[in-house]
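Students often ask why we bother encoding 3D structure as a string. The short answer is that it lets us treat folding as translation between two languages. Here is a chain of 131 residues written in the first language.
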Amino acid sequence: MLAAGYSEGTAATGQKPEDNGQVLAAIEALTARRLRAAAPVALKLIEDLVGDKTIAPRVRLDAAKTLLDRAGYTPPNQAADKAPLSPAEMTAEQLREFIADGERALADRAQVINGEATESQPTTQLTDFLT
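And here it is in the second language, the structure alphabet:
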């Protein structure tokens, strides 16, 4: 706590700032204000790194990626961009998994209307033809 700027007396009490909600809120507010003030300086530094041809290309590339990321331009998610396979393109194992996922989803949506709930067993009728 001494390194954080607290007096020896305060540090000796063992009380931490996070123990006091008001102190913690004040620290968070001050930190946010300092970050907002430093942001233009950090942005200028990153811009300088991108434009300085004497800097290692890897550093310049990382700086450019950081700029794009902070501007909201993120690389596309390749997994999300893949179109799902049609059943005709799936292997037998993929079809079994697809059917089991569908049965689980239906079972999760099921509601007991009358009587007691019982654990449902996936039907094997749909998957038998795959073996």
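Translate back mentally: The two ends are 67 Å apart (CA to CA). Keep this in mind for the problem set.
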